[in-house]
Amino acid sequence: MTTNSLFIGYIQLALATIAMLLSTAPYPSHPRPIKPGRTVFWVGGAQAVLTWVSLFLLLLEALSESTPQDLAPWNTTFCVITATVQFDRLLDDSSRIWTPYVWSWVLGICYENLLIWSHLNGSFDIWSYLRLIFAVCKCVGYASYLACLITSSKSHESVPQADKPHTPNRSTIDPDSSGYINRTAEEEIREVGGIFPWLKKFRIFWPHIWLTGDHWLQCCLVLSVIISVIEKYLAAYKSSLLSRLANLPNEAASWQEIRFPVLALTFLTLLQSNVALQNLRSWLWMQYETSRNRRVRSITYAAIMRLSSAHHRIGNSAAIIADADRGEGVVSILDSLFLTLIPGLASFVVGSHHMVQICGPFVILVLMVCWILFAIVSRRMTKGLLADGNSYTATDRDLTLHRHDSIESWRTVANYNRIQSEIRLNTVKGEAVDKDYWTYLYTWYQKSIFVESILLTGQFLGLMLVVHYVVYGKSTVGDIIAYPTYWSMTTRVMSIFQQEWPKLAQKLQHACYLRRLLELQTSTREGSDSLVNREQKDRGKQKGPASLELRNVSFEYMQGQQVLRDVNIRIAPNTTIALVGGTGVGKSTILSLIVGHLRPSKGIVLIDGRDTAEMDDFSIRHQVKIVEQTDRILDRTIAENVRYGKQDATQEEIEEACRKACIHDDVLRLPKGYQDKIGKNGRQVAHNSNFSGGQRQRILLARLFLSNPKRIAVLDEATSALDTLTEASIKRNMEEVFKESTVIIVAHRLPFIKDAHKILVLGDEGKIVEEGSHKNLLGRKGEYWKLWNNEVGEARTT
């Protein structure tokens, strides 16, 4: 090869490289995007065909007796990538901007003209004539591109700029937006503009994967990856030694010449075994993996607990836990990355080096063909896999929820003789899961067949190159023996993707839920030092009963379904207010707004004149203590359940609170007393005996008494399950405990609230129909008087 032709070859390589980079770069924004016309489709397809044919001609030339330039494989490969990527993107969306490629077309014209000039000034053979013909055709194709662009620009055939997809970010996401957290992966991909921007969103897991702050475990991770890479290099070196051993016995004059390969091979086998590197890597990885999994589980639990009340109110607890558990599979994706993909890339580099040595530079053509086709097939089938995987995930989730729901509601199912129908429904849902799963696998197997066909074809072409080099004395028979190992190493990454993709796609979809949990702006912000310091200052100021006001408050659970409309309530400090009214008038909703579980759609809630919207949840709940209808007893001991009201309470304080709640004697009759563990919601105590509804309610009241609310106490049907005598006794204790508190009571049993300072009778949409004391309202003979007569009777109306 002359110096002049070598110089031209390097210029062509530079032009082809720059054109390839321009073609694979992301689409930039453009003020006036040009829509490619029909001609561009034909030109793009023709360019792709011409470059691929050129590539295969070069392969055939490499298998002939003549030897082309060493730079030719690189130049041709880069040209193939350029044409293929451009045409693939055109097929993907014909309305995308084509102006970013204008410089790659100019470079393409320069490249092909250089190729034409070099051939016109050189010797001619059949291969030179073919390359010249294809160069002229491709040069015409690039010129046609430019002509189409100029014509479209003159005719102003512009494409309206698509609106930029709105992507929620962590500072603006509404924590009550359950629709955001339950979106499908497809919806997100469309919003962010592609799969790669979508994958970037998973960077939120990195601090928990890298174990920020723990240098020892970071070292364990790095060392594990390094050892995995070393193992791949040793595997390649072993193949090289085997190749030498295959050649040496016929040439060796003595044992000394084959001793080193044999001993080295034995030593490497020992080094790669469980005796050495494998166990060391496994031990280091287990150190890292155990801590990482524990941290991910901890952040998952913290993310769920910090969700707003709306999520916990709307969401099914079994579904939340199941989705979060599946989402933890994101860590296993990193396992594949660290222990499989990175070592696989190392295998590719080492294997490619050895492949070039035994097959020549033209093997790069074969490898790049495989990679290009693999990338296109994978990208085009990704959308189908995600869609099928999303359907499978949804049906599988539905099956899991059905099982949780029917098992948890077993008594109801049994009472209505619906056990067999639930079993049949479970079978139907299971069949739907299987159907969606097989649809998903069918798509994956299609991709698998394409990829395997590509790899087998590439392996055969590479083998032909090795044989060609052996025939002409450039390689040895031992190289043919080593070739399968080297080919396996260079294509290992593709095989990894092929094997791991079904699991990877599912895990990414499952991880979406957990990722969105972490993205949400949580309503509890206890981690902020400034907030903690502010709360410590506020606690010193927050003494004595508080005033409370709802000013023009409106609320709707769903758009268009108004629950409260322009509600105005003012409660003075150290007063007791009762809310009464029919079912669904918004009593419990008002209490949830006061406690901060809900936020008003309109209006404000004020505590001592301060808007609760400007307060974090910790501050609100530090001032407002509540017993709700839906309050639950935890699956812990009785003492632990009561101590929930005051974490540092002594045993004496716990027992005193239980005496006030009239539950102390019942607890002492249990075998372990206060140390007896309560089952789920108090339904399993002391050898399978259950607490009654009234006993469970008294445990909740004991918890409230122990918290000793000095600001605001809220009771939502807190004594609905108690008998009359017990309720009267507890009422007297309440008056003592809450004598210096602002108290808000919701009750359907009117005698319990008749001593309140003010009673508010609510109508539809929270409208105050009547307000006043018990005696005053009875004297009016209005709505309250009717409610009292219906419950107590006219004889007791005084």
TrEMBL record:
UniProt KW keywords: ATP-binding, Cell membrane, Membrane, Nucleotide-binding, Transmembrane, Transmembrane helix, Transport
Membrane topology: Multi-pass membrane protein
Keyword Membrane carried by entry: yes
Localisation per UniProt entry: Cell membrane
A cellular component annotation (GO) from this entry: plasma membrane
InterPro entries linked to this entry: AAA+_ATPase, ABC1_TM_dom, ABC1_TM_sf, ABC_transporter-like_ATP-bd, ABC_transporter-like_CS, P-loop_NTPase, Type_1_exporter
Transmembrane regions listed in the UniProt entry: 6-27, 39-60, 126-148, 330-349, 355-377, 449-471
Chain segments carrying region Disordered: 157-176
SMART domains listed in its UniProt record: AAA
Ranges of residues in domain ABC transporter: 548-790
Gene Ontology molecular function terms on file: ABC-type transporter activity; ATP binding; ATP hydrolysis activity
Signal peptide segment: none
Occurrences of domain ABC transmembrane type-1 (ranges): 222-506
Domain of life of the source: Eukaryota
PANTHER family tied to this protein: ATP-BINDING CASSETTE SUB-FAMILY B, MITOCHONDRIAL POTASSIUM CHANNEL ATP-BINDING SUBUNIT
Name assigned to this protein: Type 1 protein exporter
Species assigned in the record: Colletotrichum destructivum
Taxonomic placement: Eukaryota, Fungi, Dikarya, Ascomycota, Pezizomycotina
